[in-house]
């Protein structure tokens, strides 16, 4: 099977299978980004999170917070209140840590050039820790990641280490980060729309210019070629 | 100029130029990793930090902590004491934030397969946010990044928001992260040594098997080929 057919098969399998995440569906704030990407034949999303404020209760004495040893006291994909966090902290019996985790998305790409293009768009929208992974089987995954974080220990052995005023301040900081995260997602959405328009326009112009009278039968004729993608890099 | 000669030229230029970082030299804890990588003809490092505990004084009312608006109150590439942080906090007049930033390294790679190999080694050593960037000019950069962080707001408008006992607890947490960071660097160093041994052994075996009587003149004969690299991916 050639690379293109294999990609089409992977995409079909991925989009048809059950969503196995804890939540079981795509987060509200990024449904549009995810469906925009999945509507392009060069891409499909394999996982995503719109960004969240979480409160984790970890095991004390553990040098590293491992997800498997943690209880999730609170999760919100929206802004939250200080009261939300105080109520959740009441259930803590180990080492609680408040985290803001920004938007993250894994995008499988048909070709390396397609990954390069989305990588460029992501960096440009403020997702500076984005990067590409190329696996042995030829799977090309572009990970969209931000540097925007927050990780604050709040209790030890079930005992709160800070005062309520501090939690109120932290809530503000976390909500500001959520807001900035939303702005970056919006910026990347606009950039993607723009790139899509440019590539459709270029393909049309190219077709009008060349009017080829033969088909190579690779189903590839509607995809921007390497030159088109690299044109967009400055 | 072919890709290989261009890479050799880039490497020469990069390793000969002045170190323009604030510190002006490679951090002590990673000199060995950096020189090991630079001794391989497939790679050279373009920037690195061994991991650090920093205290930043940011401008209040700013929704995002931008480096250019910040004063660095404290930086340590080693473990630190609670007194170090308390003394540094005395100089704060805005919004102070304590951060632990783990090991980060940017590695320019000759070919995509070389980047894949080091990406695999990095993920395997715990640097899960590592990724590859391919630029328009053909530069292939592998970024080694960890998920291991800490980002704690400590003061607002110059006023400390937490108690001294909390700073003492945070110091412990930051030092534990520094320790875990050191372990991961060590693990990746061992992996790299191992890979280097395997690839030297394979090249030797291949040369003994084939004993070619002509040279292609591309200076490439001592580099593991794609099959060698991909053999290492499981």
TrEMBL record, chains A, B:
Residues 225-234 have a biased composition (Acidic residues). Residues 198-209 have a biased composition (Basic residues). The keyword Thylakoid does not apply. SUPFAM superfamilies: SSo0622-like. It holds the Pfam family TYW3. Residues 9-190 form the tRNA wybutosine-synthesizing protein domain. GO terms for molecular function: methyltransferase activity. GO terms for biological process: methylation; tRNA processing. The keyword Nucleotide-binding does not apply. Keywords: Methyltransferase, S-adenosyl-L-methionine, Transferase, tRNA processing. It comes from the Eukaryota. Residues 181-234 are annotated as: Disordered. Its EC number is 2.1.1.282. It catalyses: 4-demethyl-7-[(3S)-3-amino-3-carboxypropyl]wyosine(37) in tRNA(Phe) + S-adenosyl-L-methionine = 7-[(3S)-3-amino-3-carboxypropyl]wyosine(37) in tRNA(Phe) + S-adenosyl-L-homocysteine + H(+). Residues 181-197, 210-219 have a biased composition (Basic and acidic residues). Pathway: tRNA modification; wybutosine-tRNA(Phe) biosynthesis. Belongs to the TYW3 family. Probable S-adenosyl-L-methionine-dependent methyltransferase that acts as a component of the wybutosine biosynthesis pathway. Wybutosine is a hyper modified guanosine with a tricyclic base found at the 3'-position adjacent to the anticodon of eukaryotic phenylalanine tRNA. This is tRNA wybutosine-synthesizing protein 3 homolog.
